[in-house]
Amino acid sequence: MGMIGFTVGFIGFLLHNVIDAIEEPILEKALELAKEGKIGIVWCWRVGMGVILASLSSIIIVYFRPSAGGSGIPELIAFLNGTSIRHIYNVRTLLAKFASCAFAVSAGLFAGPEGPMIHIGALVGAGLSQFKSDSMGINLAYFQRFRNPEDRRNFISAGAAAGVSSAFGAPVGGLLFSMEEVSSFWSNRLTWQVFFCSMIAAFTTNIFNSAFLGFHYQLEILNNIIIFIPTICLGILGGGLGSLFVFMNLKIVRLRDWVETFSISSRLKKLMKIAEVVIIITLTATISTTLPLARKCQHQKVPIKTGVSANGKWRYTNQTYNELSSLLYTSQDHAINQLLSRGTHKQYSPEGLLYYFIPYFLLACWTSTASLSVGLVMPMLTIGALYGRMIGELLVIWFGEHFYYGEKYSDASDYKAWMDPGAIALIGAASFFAGVSRLTISLTVIMIEITNDVTMLLPIMTAIMVAKIVGDQLTHPIYHALLEVKCIPILDEEPVVYTQDPNGRSVL
Amino acid sequence: MGMIGFTVGFIGFLLHNVIDAIEEPILEKALELAKEGKIGIVWCWRVGMGVILASLSSIIIVYFRPSAGGSGIPELIAFLNGTSIRHIYNVRTLLAKFASCAFAVSAGLFAGPEGPMIHIGALVGAGLSQFKSDSMGINLAYFQRFRNPEDRRNFISAGAAAGVSSAFGAPVGGLLFSMEEVSSFWSNRLTWQVFFCSMIAAFTTNIFNSAFLGFHYQLEILNNIIIFIPTICLGILGGGLGSLFVFMNLKIVRLRDWVETFSISSRLKKLMKIAEVVIIITLTATISTTLPLARKCQHQKVPIKTGVSANGKWRYTNQTYNELSSLLYTSQDHAINQLLSRGTHKQYSPEGLLYYFIPYFLLACWTSTASLSVGLVMPMLTIGALYGRMIGELLVIWFGEHFYYGEKYSDASDYKAWMDPGAIALIGAASFFAGVSRLTISLTVIMIEITNDVTMLLPIMTAIMVAKIVGDQLTHPIYHALLEVKCIPILDEEPVVYTQDPNGRSVL
């Protein structure tokens, strides 16, 4: 899948640049002539060049490979629906498609390269997964396992998604396009494989496009390439801590069940449940009240933004504020907003956040199992944002000090803005959420919609992906684990195969 | 579906405000005391209030309705998987859940209201669709048709999506959450029903939240309530024009097939195809070159932004520029960028855009059927952006003139910024794309990812929805129509029922 994503991303980059390289000189020449007022010559020039390029494009299709004509999307839909069509997955089709599309678009026709890009993606998916080409005479034994209709279809779906992802820079859109329009068959397992594939494709196209400009994104400064190192660390951490959270959650539920076996009357049981809640709230309130005392009030040095996020609203006096009271003497929405706020990298210290993180983690875990009607989402976001911010602050201390030292504060155009602890807190929140719930695509979109910020899309996707992979090695997702504890049966989409003898030889 | 969305959105708003109303006075009191340095009293106050609220919350669950405990998501997953659980869809559960959740969160526990909100959404979906409640003794005959397990499941999925949508303000995320995590069964038809439902939920919550602040969104100025009037018009237009596009596309393909029956040799046929392409490119180049001559060069009055979108880059001289040459003497990416650019409302005139729109529409339609490997996406976006911009400019002329007159230009904090033609062009592009391709969710996400702007989410969703509904009345989606023309069979997910006798009485 990663290979498909990379290849499609690279082809997308190539196609885009070939078109640009042909189109730009033509248009510039035309403009020069137009400035001199020679409209007749402009007309000759544009028509002439257009006819040459468009004819080339058309000749390729008509004589060389008629099946490469059109956008290719209808054929793709039909194939995935079960109709076999000749020549649509073929190296020669790929070449014809690429060349014809590049010539046609750069001729100035009113048409775009996106449709063919989707077909090319599917083609790459089909070809790379089989690693067998009649035209090229290649046939690798290792890929034998993928040579069945189902896997082939899945790889083609992934390739189509990667095509959209590369053409529009829209990885989530690519996945959804493949799911909604192209594919007739879809499984949940496929979702995150395609998710991964289209993420890689968007990433590759981005990297190559920006390779000529100092190896960092031109528009999206935050998405610096280096951010992916802490992102992957956060993903691993998110997966690990998320699994720990699920594990502890289950242990607490089981412990309570075990304690309940000792008490006899059902009335006592109910009272015990309420007593448990009272203990939790007492602990919570105690911590909320007293924890800020453990930290000295700091003199306010950092320029604190005011506004919606209500940063630094709860200072004790005008000159000093306490980092923890700003988190604990307010509602959770505000606390999360403050953790995620950008450009306030000196507001919290790593140790202070650690003091808050440990009791919060334990109590949130306990609270969610008590007899209350409460959800896990807010605590999950807070925990993730806490350790994300912690790591972000550490990064600033370790690597960013020479940059932030003195009066030089980070701003949007700053090259080091990637280590803004607010951005890293956001990635942390996404990773912990993913580690606990194992959602992929919906979580990505929710995080984007919460923060109203599309620029962090790729790091968030990466962190979620890593957290899911790590977490899946360790425990069930939380909701499924809770179902198990409650003794509610659930059927997976695909049956688990228990047989020792998959070929059924013993039957024969 | 709309009713479910509205109800869930309203409950979400209510829950949020109840929590705020209880929590804020407590925290403010605590802060006041803390400022006076009386930490002991603060502790007593917070613990006391917390214990009261949390006990209330717990008592409701333990004595009144134990099945409302926890977040409710595992039960939801299990129900949609086929396991029946007692009391989870019940008015009393709804009330218990609401009250317990409100008390628990405002007590300051480390827990959030999102999980219960999802369960409440599903509950509303289940209840409203059946319109039958044993607890309340209501039973309406009209809703008999929905009283089967499949529809019930679908309504519950929609309700859960609306819950997420309302809790996070994330309509797309809600739909995906419902699809990925909650539901075990899913059909494509359900996608856009749930899409609609969660859109309404997010919209309702937004409206109510902002009702106290002058009836327009606080943060997202562009999403003014009035923008939905042109949005719906654009949606209808998009559906209509999209269907026209599909219709003409098919006619051209059929016409070509008919012409080809006259020519005998296959060599001639191939030459004819190439000749057709040459004719198209000649026409295209001619129009591209000469159309700008039809418009006078205007004196540059509007402050034109420079930068990525390369606005006004192709002026003839420094003082004047030609509105159409700025679209036609550049690549299509740039042209679309210019059409979608904000705050440049005087750059194009409606008539100028109309001159461009008509030939573009016809030629794009023809080009896409020729023997070329080209896609439809770019032209679709351009056409949509063209008529969107046209309407946007008209709106400015009709209603906005007294505002923009003289030197007073719109800026981001302007109340009338909703009629920025760039924003309306974006909605137009989405609506035409939807009218042609009938995509819903993936198109929304692609548009968001292309523009990197989440604030326009709700108008875009509305336009896509309307365009899809209008278009579905008129023609097939383009890809399916093309499949039909190419005589490729495709199987729908659900079989079409042709029988006149659905009850099978004749068989008996």
UniProtKB/TrEMBL annotation, chains A, B:
Membrane-crossing segments per the record: 45-64, 155-178, 190-213, 225-248, 274-294, 353-374, 380-400, 421-448
InterPro entries documented for this protein: Cl-channel/antiporter, Cl-channel_core, ClC
Protein name (record): Chloride channel protein
The UniProt record lists the keyword Transmembrane helix: yes
GO MF term list: chloride transmembrane transporter activity
Compartment annotation: Membrane
Keyword Membrane: yes
Cellular component aspect of the GO annotation: membrane
SUPFAM superfamilies: Clc chloride channel
Membrane topology annotation: Multi-pass membrane protein
Major localization class: membrane
Alphabetical keyword list: CBS domain, Membrane, Repeat, Transmembrane, Transmembrane helix
Highest classification ranks of the organism: Eukaryota, Metazoa, Chordata, Tunicata, Appendicularia
